[in-house]
Design a protein that fits this description.
7 helices, Ankyrin_rpt-contain_sf, 134 residues, mainly alpha, SHANK, 0% strand, Serine Threonine Protein Phosphatase 5, Tetratricopeptide repeat, ANK repeat, globular, single chain, ionotropic glutamate receptor binding
């Protein structure tokens, strides 16, 4: 099993979306920390020069956007530290899409959201972005 995870992480690091998709289709859960380096597949994807396709592949395969590495940093934290603005933009687009779907369905499936969030014209991250936090 460990060699499978190592191969999967190598595929992520090399940007091989087709191979990563095959692993995910076989049922591999992308939410894990590799014990030797403490990284997750998404935190490794953030390090790619062009991370968009790999991030989208992992997220569509079930990767949680806020799954933390051993150093307690999320993929978004790592993207910010590395200055990888493309990765930050992709993360924001995925989050915006999620909240857009919530608004369209008019169901509050996330109890942590404030009650008025579904009627707001902005995403929950918009005030943080305009405030300079992202």
């Amino acid at each position: 099993m460990a060699s499978n995870l190592r191969q999967f992480l190598d595929n992520v690091k090399n940007g091989e979306c087709d191979k990563v998709t095959k692993w995910l289709n076989k049922g591999l859960d992308p939410n894990f920390q590799w014990k030797d380096m403490g990284e997750t597949p998404l935190t490794l994807a953030i390090k790619l020069a062009k991370p968009r396709d790999m991030i989208m592949t992992l997220v569509s395969g079930g990767a949680h956007l806020d799954y933390r590495a051993a150093d307690t940093m999320t993929p978004l934290h790592k993207a910010a530290v590395a200055g990888n603005y493309e990765a930050i933009k992709v993360k924001r687009q995925i989050a915006a899409s999620y909240f857009e779907q919530l608004e369209q369905s008019k169901t509050q499936s996330c109890p942590l959201l404030p009650p008025n969030i579904l009627t707001s014209q902005q995403t929950p991250t918009a005030p943080r972005v305009t405030g300079g936090h992202l």
